[in-house]
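Sequence and fold
=================
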Amino acid sequence: MAVAAEVKIWDPIVRIGHWAIVVGFAINYITDEPRLLHVWVGYTIAAVVALRILWGFVGSRPARFREFVVRPSAVLAYLRDLLRLRSPRYLGHSPAGGAMVVALLVMLAATAFAGLLTDGARNHAGPLAGWFVTPETAGLPVTIPNDPTAQAAWRATWQPYKEIHSLLANLTLGLIGFHIAGVLFASYAHRENLVRAMLTGRKRRTEPGVPPD
Protein backbone atom coordinates (compact mmCIF):
# COMPACT_ATOMS: atom_id res chain seq x y z
CA MET A 1 0.00 0.00 0.00
CA ALA A 2 1.33 3.43 -0.93
CA VAL A 3 2.15 5.80 1.90
CA ALA A 4 0.10 8.99 1.92
CA ALA A 5 2.01 12.11 0.94
CA GLU A 6 0.54 14.08 3.84
CA VAL A 7 -0.78 13.31 7.28
CA LYS A 8 -3.09 15.23 9.57
CA ILE A 9 -1.23 16.78 12.52
CA TRP A 10 -3.04 19.87 13.81
CA ASP A 11 -6.63 19.44 14.90
CA PRO A 12 -9.27 22.20 14.45
CA ILE A 13 -8.97 23.48 18.02
CA VAL A 14 -5.24 24.08 17.61
CA ARG A 15 -5.64 25.72 14.21
CA ILE A 16 -8.71 27.84 14.91
CA GLY A 17 -7.33 28.86 18.29
CA HIS A 18 -4.01 29.86 16.74
CA TRP A 19 -5.58 32.13 14.11
CA ALA A 20 -8.17 33.52 16.54
CA ILE A 21 -5.32 34.69 18.78
CA VAL A 22 -3.49 36.16 15.77
CA VAL A 23 -6.51 38.21 14.72
CA GLY A 24 -7.55 39.14 18.26
CA PHE A 25 -4.09 40.27 19.34
CA ALA A 26 -3.70 42.36 16.17
CA ILE A 27 -7.04 44.08 16.78
CA ASN A 28 -6.33 44.87 20.40
CA TYR A 29 -2.74 45.94 19.85
CA ILE A 30 -3.55 48.55 17.20
CA THR A 31 -6.71 49.94 18.77
CA ASP A 32 -7.92 50.82 22.25
CA GLU A 33 -11.25 52.21 21.06
CA PRO A 34 -14.09 51.48 20.96
CA ARG A 35 -13.36 50.34 24.48
CA LEU A 36 -16.07 47.69 24.49
CA LEU A 37 -14.50 46.03 21.43
CA HIS A 38 -11.07 45.99 23.07
CA VAL A 39 -12.49 44.47 26.26
CA TRP A 40 -14.44 41.70 24.57
CA VAL A 41 -11.66 40.81 22.16
CA GLY A 42 -9.43 40.52 25.23
CA TYR A 43 -11.94 38.15 26.85
CA THR A 44 -12.00 36.09 23.66
CA ILE A 45 -8.21 35.81 23.63
CA ALA A 46 -8.21 34.80 27.31
CA ALA A 47 -10.85 32.13 26.65
CA VAL A 48 -8.87 30.72 23.70
CA VAL A 49 -5.69 30.65 25.79
CA ALA A 50 -7.51 28.84 28.60
CA LEU A 51 -8.90 26.31 26.12
CA ARG A 52 -5.46 25.77 24.56
CA ILE A 53 -3.94 25.13 27.98
CA LEU A 54 -6.67 22.58 28.75
CA TRP A 55 -6.20 21.05 25.29
CA GLY A 56 -2.52 20.67 26.10
CA PHE A 57 -3.53 17.99 28.61
CA VAL A 58 -6.56 16.29 27.02
CA GLY A 59 -6.35 17.13 23.31
CA SER A 60 -4.96 15.29 20.30
CA ARG A 61 -1.52 13.80 20.76
CA PRO A 62 0.51 16.45 18.84
CA ALA A 63 -1.25 19.19 20.83
CA ARG A 64 -0.32 17.82 24.26
CA PHE A 65 2.42 19.51 26.25
CA ARG A 66 4.11 16.20 27.03
CA GLU A 67 4.76 15.78 23.30
CA PHE A 68 6.75 18.99 22.85
CA VAL A 69 7.84 20.46 26.18
CA VAL A 70 11.50 19.52 26.61
CA ARG A 71 14.54 20.59 28.62
CA PRO A 72 16.08 24.02 27.84
CA SER A 73 19.27 22.25 26.77
CA ALA A 74 17.32 20.38 24.09
CA VAL A 75 15.84 23.66 22.85
CA LEU A 76 19.28 25.24 22.60
CA ALA A 77 20.69 22.18 20.83
CA TYR A 78 17.85 22.29 18.31
CA LEU A 79 18.38 26.00 17.64
CA ARG A 80 22.10 25.45 17.16
CA ASP A 81 21.46 22.70 14.62
CA LEU A 82 18.72 24.71 12.92
CA LEU A 83 21.11 27.61 12.31
CA ARG A 84 23.48 25.09 10.73
CA LEU A 85 20.58 23.78 8.58
CA ARG A 86 20.95 20.28 9.98
CA SER A 87 18.28 20.08 12.66
CA PRO A 88 15.87 17.13 12.58
CA ARG A 89 12.39 17.70 11.20
CA TYR A 90 9.45 17.25 13.56
CA LEU A 91 5.91 16.44 12.50
CA GLY A 92 4.61 18.21 15.60
CA HIS A 93 6.17 21.14 17.38
CA SER A 94 9.95 21.26 17.36
CA PRO A 95 11.70 21.83 20.71
CA ALA A 96 11.99 25.55 19.93
CA GLY A 97 8.42 25.70 18.65
CA GLY A 98 7.18 24.01 21.79
CA ALA A 99 9.07 26.46 23.99
CA MET A 100 7.55 29.34 22.04
CA VAL A 101 4.04 27.92 22.48
CA VAL A 102 4.51 27.84 26.25
CA ALA A 103 6.07 31.32 26.35
CA LEU A 104 3.28 32.85 24.26
CA LEU A 105 0.54 31.21 26.33
CA VAL A 106 2.11 32.54 29.53
CA MET A 107 2.53 36.05 28.15
CA LEU A 108 -0.94 36.18 26.64
CA ALA A 109 -2.46 35.02 29.92
CA ALA A 110 -0.46 37.63 31.86
CA THR A 111 -1.44 40.38 29.41
CA ALA A 112 -5.11 39.44 29.68
CA PHE A 113 -4.93 39.39 33.48
CA ALA A 114 -3.30 42.84 33.53
CA GLY A 115 -6.12 44.02 31.27
CA LEU A 116 -8.65 42.75 33.80
CA LEU A 117 -6.90 44.70 36.55
CA THR A 118 -6.91 47.84 34.42
CA ASP A 119 -10.59 47.55 33.60
CA GLY A 120 -11.46 46.80 37.20
CA ALA A 121 -9.62 49.88 38.46
CA ARG A 122 -11.24 52.07 35.80
CA ASN A 123 -14.69 50.60 36.55
CA HIS A 124 -15.21 49.48 32.94
CA ALA A 125 -17.79 46.93 31.93
CA GLY A 126 -16.83 43.29 31.81
CA PRO A 127 -17.99 40.20 33.69
CA LEU A 128 -14.65 39.63 35.42
CA ALA A 129 -13.36 43.20 35.74
CA GLY A 130 -14.26 43.52 39.42
CA TRP A 131 -13.07 40.10 40.52
CA PHE A 132 -9.50 41.14 41.31
CA VAL A 133 -9.53 44.91 41.74
CA THR A 134 -12.26 47.55 41.95
CA PRO A 135 -12.16 51.34 42.11
CA GLU A 136 -12.74 51.07 45.85
CA THR A 137 -9.88 48.65 46.49
CA ALA A 138 -7.65 50.76 44.25
CA GLY A 139 -8.55 53.88 46.22
CA LEU A 140 -10.49 55.43 43.33
CA PRO A 141 -13.95 56.98 43.13
CA VAL A 142 -16.54 54.82 41.38
CA THR A 143 -17.43 57.63 38.96
CA ILE A 144 -15.06 59.89 37.08
CA PRO A 145 -14.65 63.14 39.04
CA ASN A 146 -15.54 66.46 37.40
CA ASP A 147 -12.71 68.46 38.93
CA PRO A 148 -9.61 68.47 36.65
CA THR A 149 -7.25 68.02 39.61
CA ALA A 150 -9.26 65.06 40.87
CA GLN A 151 -9.35 63.60 37.36
CA ALA A 152 -5.55 63.81 37.15
CA ALA A 153 -5.24 62.01 40.48
CA TRP A 154 -7.77 59.42 39.29
CA ARG A 155 -5.78 58.73 36.14
CA ALA A 156 -2.48 58.60 38.04
CA THR A 157 -3.86 55.88 40.31
CA TRP A 158 -5.06 53.46 37.62
CA GLN A 159 -2.36 54.32 35.08
CA PRO A 160 0.19 51.83 36.54
CA TYR A 161 -2.21 48.99 35.76
CA LYS A 162 -2.43 50.13 32.15
CA GLU A 163 1.34 50.55 31.90
CA ILE A 164 1.88 46.97 33.05
CA HIS A 165 -0.76 45.81 30.57
CA SER A 166 0.98 47.71 27.76
CA LEU A 167 4.43 46.43 28.76
CA LEU A 168 3.23 42.83 28.69
CA ALA A 169 1.55 43.39 25.32
CA ASN A 170 4.81 44.78 23.91
CA LEU A 171 6.80 41.84 25.27
CA THR A 172 4.27 39.50 23.71
CA LEU A 173 4.65 41.31 20.40
CA GLY A 174 8.40 40.77 20.63
CA LEU A 175 7.86 37.05 21.15
CA ILE A 176 5.52 37.00 18.16
CA GLY A 177 8.26 38.58 16.07
CA PHE A 178 10.71 35.83 17.10
CA HIS A 179 8.01 33.24 16.44
CA ILE A 180 7.40 34.50 12.90
CA ALA A 181 11.13 34.60 12.18
CA GLY A 182 11.53 31.08 13.52
CA VAL A 183 8.63 29.74 11.47
CA LEU A 184 10.00 31.29 8.28
CA PHE A 185 13.53 30.02 8.89
CA ALA A 186 12.36 26.52 9.82
CA SER A 187 10.16 26.48 6.72
CA TYR A 188 13.24 27.27 4.65
CA ALA A 189 15.46 24.79 6.47
CA HIS A 190 13.03 21.90 6.13
CA ARG A 191 11.56 22.88 2.76
CA GLU A 192 8.08 22.92 4.28
CA ASN A 193 5.44 25.66 4.48
CA LEU A 194 4.65 25.72 8.19
CA VAL A 195 2.10 28.51 7.78
CA ARG A 196 0.15 26.37 5.35
CA ALA A 197 0.38 23.46 7.79
CA MET A 198 -1.28 25.55 10.49
CA LEU A 199 -4.04 26.45 8.03
CA THR A 200 -4.72 22.95 6.69
CA GLY A 201 -3.57 20.92 9.67
CA ARG A 202 -1.56 18.67 7.37
CA LYS A 203 2.17 18.09 6.87
CA ARG A 204 4.07 15.83 4.56
CA ARG A 205 4.75 12.34 5.84
CA THR A 206 8.36 11.23 5.63
CA GLU A 207 8.35 8.14 7.81
CA PRO A 208 5.96 5.71 9.51
CA GLY A 209 4.86 5.97 13.09
CA VAL A 210 2.93 9.25 12.74
CA PRO A 211 1.00 10.23 15.88
CA PRO A 212 -2.75 9.47 15.58
CA ASP A 213 -5.31 12.26 15.23
Q: What stands out?
A: The chain has one domain: 16-204. The CA atoms of residues 7 and 170 lie 36 Å apart. Strands lie at 6-8, 202-204. DSSP finds seven helices and two strands in the chain.
